[in-house]
Structures are given as structure tokens and as C-alpha cells.
Write a structure and sequence with these properties.
The complex is a heterodimer of chains A (271) and B (322). By secondary structure, chain A is mainly alpha-helical. Helix content of chain A is 78%, strand content 0%. In chain A, helix 2 runs parallel beside helix 6 (99-129) and helix 7 runs parallel beside helix 13 (247-270). Chain B has helices spanning 63-70, 93-97, 115-126, 132-139, 155-167, 185-200, 212-215, 236-243, 258-264, 289-297, 313-321; strands at residues 23-34, 37-48, 52-57, 78-83, 86-87, 100-103, 173-177, 204-208, 221-226, 229-234, 247-253, 270-276, 279-284, 303-309. The two termini of chain B are 27 Å apart. Classes of the chains: A mainly alpha (271), B alpha/beta (322). Chains A and B meet through helix 1 and helix 5 of A and helix 2 and helix 3 of B.
Chain lengths: 271, 322
């Protein structure tokens, strides 16, 4: 593998998103939402203003779990199929570059743009809140930012995978929306439904582990488990086995969610 | 260049049909099947270093598929293709790709980049010096538009930019798929001037075109493809002779002398004779060419002007592809 080829493709993808202000727009969305949640999250209870990092992160997790997968899927769904449909893929592949380098470069460039937006958007909020946060709170907030980046990369990996399999952009966009529905809205309902139907009698111990099959759930556990108040609030301590609370394990699972779809995409694209 | 004609029906003795010289592109029994469809069906070719080689055929004849196979973009179902000695499907082909320039049919570039940025991007991929980009833009006549975004380019300018990216890295082999699409006549002439210059430097070029009149005097050899097969291969002149198509004699004579012309040619194998506006067009079999001259000489000064027309590449093309 030639790193320079990967860097060239990644650089183009990244600067394309900087240039067309995609990064700026997404960063602004994150900043605005995060600020609104931090200052007005408790408005329903009649209180306005920053309350605690735990509550802010819990609210942000609920937001990010909807927003980042959608943004990542929309960012990557046409990475390959778009080039193919426009007719520029043949020209790219006629260059001294392998298909693996091309797909990796595409992924890294898009991931860089998404990570930059996420860090810039939420990082700006961290700067605004810095005076009201102690070191521990900052640590939790940076953990939330890092896991948000991982969540985005996992869904971006899924998007790139479907961009290889899809026959055209229209189908790819439909599949992207379907994936979002499945992982963000349907998956947990299916698990809950199965639990209710079986009365928790069959494979009850297995269900918490099944959450690992959804990167959105991994992200949720990763953030909620790191905050004592919120964990109690969610009642997760009684549902999830302690072994699932290991951040390194959850981070590893998230890395798996990044590597596996990308690996499948690379295998399919190379055929 | 000495000609070699090889009709597909004939056995190809000794493998691929070669012209003298060092074959830089070698295709042996290449085939590409999509289910029952044989897009490319047992093609044998050899293109020599420094040769300007044409590939013509109807839409769906298999040209573009063969092009993609030559570039290693799609795998062959059967056969072997080597460029500069390296199999296109092998790991060693990356090094060869650095010496290849490719202009796809209907080239699509990135609208958000400027002309110069486009070339910088492809130069990086080809490991070509960025400093060459300006010179290449100058060469294709786009220096004035270097800082303009591609979305503002006309079709002809995009085509020239596509050609410019193909020229990056001083390629030794060019694959040009319909390279003059969208170009005006002056740009087409400039394109072929550049191509001739490259040929003089030893660059090999494979070119496809639907405009047969445009390439008939410009390529060294060409292959006519139909139904996925190479139906004929050779120089334009050799293919004309192979087809044994009749010649046209265009005569200018006084109207009163039409009958005399007809009488003088009466005993010869005339295929057709047409007269209008003081001109007589006589189509005769090739072997009767000198006899026609002799017969016309008997008319003395009554023939005011004479022009002999070879069958066009279009005539040859339809002869082989039909």
C-alpha cells in the first residue's frame, strides 16, 4: 500500500468538504444544538442556564444518537457509487492506485471532515463552558466528543460499504435512510419487543450483549456508563452486566464497527 | 510502416497479429462475457511502440470494453493482456500505470476544482511533478483558464483538460477514447498536432473515434471491431486493398463530351457512372485503374480535370463491419 496515494485521495475529499462549507455547516449545527441543550435543556423544569455536565451530556447523547448517524450516512452514501455514476471512477482507477487505497482514502478524507466538524462544533461549546467545568467534567465532555467521533466513523464506514454495493445513487440514498431507521429507531424496539414477548425468560442474559450489534447503542452505553448520576437515572446499572461497562471494550467494539464494514466494502470493491 | 492485414476469419499464425517492431501492447485471445453476452470475443492485437493505433466500430462493438480491459479496469473472462510486458491484472501493473495516460469517453472531472487544481490532483496520483501542470495546460491551450473552476468550462475545454490530465507524467502509452468529442475543428487540428509530436517522441497511442474521416489519414494502423471481435486489422490503405473496393474517377468535361467519355470506358469494368453539373464520376474496379487512365488519355484535351478518389475509411468500415 502506498500511503501517499491514500493521502492524496483523503486530502481531496477533506478539502472538498472544507471548500463547500460542509464542515462549517455541520460544526455550526453541533455548536448551536449543544449550546441550546447546555443552557436551555432544563427550561421545561422552569430553570434556564447551565446545570451540570452529566445532564448536558445525557441530553447531548440523545441528540447525537439521531444526528451523527444521519450526517455520516448522508456524507458517505455516494462515495463510490457517486463516482461510478458520474463516470469519474474509471479515470481514478486508471491511475497508479489500488482499489483498497482509493476506498481507504475516500473513507479517511470523509472521516476527517466529520471528525473535524464534530470536534470543532462540540469543542467550541467546551471552550464556552470551560469556566464552569472542573477537570473531571472536562474529561467526561472530551470522552463524549471522542465517542461521538467514533460513532460518526462507524456509520460512515457503513455508508461507504453501501456505496460499494448499491447500483446507483438513488438506491444508495434509500439504503442509507433505511440503515438509519434500523439502527437508530427500530433496533432497540425489536430487542424490547423480543423481551416483552418472551417475558424475559429466554436468553435474558444475552440481550445486553445484543446491544453491541448496534453502534448507536454502543455509543449510548459508552457515555451513560461513565456518568454515575445518569447511569442511575437510566437504570442501566441493573440491566447491563458490569463487564459491559468497560470503556476499552466498548471502544474496541466501536473500532470493530468501523473496520468491519470498511473491510467488507474493500473486499466487494476489489472483486 | 509495413502493413499487416488480418481478417478475424483467418487463423492468426504465431499468435497475435503484429506489425514489425516492439509490441508494447499485446492482447491474446482476450474475451469478456456478461452471461450470454460476449462483449469482447477472442481479440488478438499487438500495438507497436510509437504507433498511433485506431480502434473503430459501431456502438456496442466492444471498443470501450476492450479499452477497459487494456487498462485493467475490468478483468478478462479469458485470454491475456500485457502492457509493456506486465499483465494488466498483475500487481506489477501499478508501475506501468504511471507510464499510461487515459482519456475516457465523456470525461468527467471535478466541477469544484479549477483546471490547475484538477491537474495537481492527478499529478499527485501519478507522482508527476506539480511544476509540469502549467506547461501541460499551456500545451492544450487552457493556460488562460487555469484558475477557473471546471464547472465554468465548456464541453470542449473539459475535453482538453481531460487530455491534459492524460499527458501528465510524460506517459509512454496513451489510451484516448473519443478524444475529439466536443472539440471545434481548430482544436481537433491542434489535438492531432500534439499527438503527432508525441508519436515522434516514441509515445504509443490507441485512439477510438466515431469520426472515421478524422482518423483515416492520422493513424498508422487500425482495427475494426464488430460483435466483440476484431474483424480487420491493418493500415487504412491495406484494408482498402483487402476489401478490394472500387475507386472513383472524378472528371471535369464539357457536357458535349459526356458520351465520348462513356464510349471510351465502355469496354472496362465500370461499376457506376454518374454525370451532373459538368462533372462525371466513374467508379471502377481497382485492377482497372491503369486501363481507365489509358482510355481517358485517348480523349486528349477533352478531359479538363481528373481526380482519383480512394474509398474512404467509412466505405472500408462498412465493408468489414457489415
Amino acid at each position: 500500500m502506498e500511503i501517499s496515494q491514500v493521502a492524496t485521495i483523503a486530502g481531496k475529499e477533506f478539502w472538498d468538504r472544507i471548500r463547500n462549507r460542509w464542515v462549517l455547516a455541520v460544526a455550526l449545527v453541533f455548536t448551536v444544538f449543544a449550546l441550546v441543550i447546555a443552557y436551555f435543556g432544563a427550561a421545561q423544569q422552569g430553570a434556564v442556564g447551565f446545570r451540570s455536565i452529566e445532564v448536558t451530556i445525557a441530553s447531548l447523547v440523545s441528540l447525537v444518537i439521531y444526528l451523527i448517524p444521519l450526517i455520516a450516512l448522508l456524507l458517505g452514501f455516494d462515495a463510490i457509487v457517486g463516482e461510478r455514476e458520474r463516470g469519474s471512477l474509471d479515470l481514478l482507477l486508471s491511475m497508479p492506485i489500488t482499489r483498497f487505497e482509493l476506498i481507504l482514502g475516500k473513507y479517511l478524507g470523509l472521516a476527517g471532515a466529520l471528525a473535524f466538524s464534530t470536534v470543532a462544533g462540540f469543542g467550541l461549546v467546551a471552550i464556552v463552558l470551560a469556566a464552569q467545568l472542573d477537570l473531571n467534567a472536562l474529561f467526561h465532555y472530551f470522552g463524549f466528543m471522542a465517542s461521538s467521533v467514533l460513532l460518526g466513523m462507524a456509520f460512515l464506514s457503513l455508508a461507504v460499504m453501501l456505496s460499494v454495493f448499491a447500483a446507483d445513487r438513488t438506491r444508495a440514498s434509500g439504503l442509507a435512510i433505511a440503515l438509519w431507521f434500523f439502527f437508530v429507531l427500530v433496533f432497540d424496539l425489536l430487542l424490547l419487543g423480543a423481551l416483552v414477548v418472551t417475558g424475559g425468560q429466554y436468553g435474558g442474559d444475552l440481550f445486553p450483549w445484543l446491544l453491541l450489534l448496534n453502534p448507536a447503542d454502543v455509543f449510548r452505553i459508552l457515555n451513560i456508563f461513565s456518568l454515575e448520576d445518569v447511569r442511575t437515572l437510566y437504570g442501566l446499572a441493573t440491566v447491563l452486566p458490569p463487564s459491559l461497562a468497560e470503556p476499552w471494550l466498548l471502544a474496541l467494539v466501536m473500532l470493530g464497527w468501523i473496520a468491519a464494514p470498511l473491510g467488507i466494502a474493500s473486499w466487494r470493491f476489489g472483486k | 510502416m509495413e502493413s499487416t492485414i488480418q481478417a478475424a476469419a483467418e487463423p492468426l499464425a504465431g499468435g497475435a497479429p503484429d506489425a514489425p517492431g516492439e509490441a508494447v501492447i499485446r492482447v491474446r485471445g482476450a474475451a469478456k462475457h456478461y452471461g450470454a453476452v460476449r462483449a469482447v470475443d477472442g481479440v488478438d492485437l499487438a500495438v507497436q511502440r510509437g504507433e498511433l493505433f485506431g480502434l473503430i466500430g459501431h456502438n456496442g462493438a466492444g471498443k470501450s470494453t476492450l479499452f477497459k480491459m487494456l487498462l485493467g479496469l475490468i478483468p478478462s473472462s479469458a485470454g491475456e493482456i500485457t502492457i509493456d510486458g506486465a499483465p494488466v491484472s498483475g500487481g506489477g501493473f501499478r508501475a506501468v500505470r504511471r507510464r499510461i495516460g487515459y482519456l475516457p469517453e465523456n470525461v468527467v472531472l471535478y466541477d469544484n476544482l479549477t483546471g490547475l487544481e484538477t491537474l495537481h490532483f492527478f499529478a499527485k496520483l501519478k507522482n508527476a511533478p506539480a511544476a509540469d501542470c502549467g506547461a501541460v495546460l499551456e500545451r492544450v491551450g487552457l493556460a488562460h483558464a487555469a484558475a477557473r473552476r471546471v464547472r465554468e468550462y465548456s464541453k470542449g475545454m473539459r475535453q482538453r483538460l481531460g487530455f491534459a490530465q492524460a499527458l501528465l507524467g510524460r506517459p509512454q502509452i496513451l489510451f484516448l477514447d473519443e478524444p475529439t468529442t466536443g472539440l471545434d475543428p481548430e482544436a481537433i487540428r491542434e489535438f492531432y498536432v500534439i499527438l503527432r509530436g508525441l508519436r515522434a517522441e516514441g509515445v504509443t497511442a490507441v485512439i477510438t473515434s466515431h469520426i472515421l474521416a478524422e482518423i483515416q489519414e492520422r493513424v498508422d494502423r487500425l482495427a475494426i471491431m464488430a460483435s466483440g471481435k476484431v474483424q480487420a486489422l491493418g493500415t487504412v490503405q491495406a484494408l482498402r486493398e483487402e476489401m478490394d473496393l472500387p475507386l472513383w474517377f472524378d472528371l471535369r468535361v464539357a457536357e458535349a463530351d459526356f458520351t465520348a467519355v462513356r464510349d471510351a470506358l465502355g469496354s472496362l469494368p465500370v461499376v457506376a457512372i454518374e454525370a451532373h453539373d459538368g462533372r462525371v464520376a466513374v467508379q471502377v474496379r481497382r485492377e482497372a485503374k491503369m486501363a481507365v487512365f489509358a482510355a481517358l488519355a485517348t480523349l486528349g484535351g477533352r478531359v479538363l480535370d481528373l481526380h482519383v478518389r480512394e474509398p474512404s475509411l467509412e466505405d472500408v468500415f462498412f465493408g468489414f463491419s457489415d
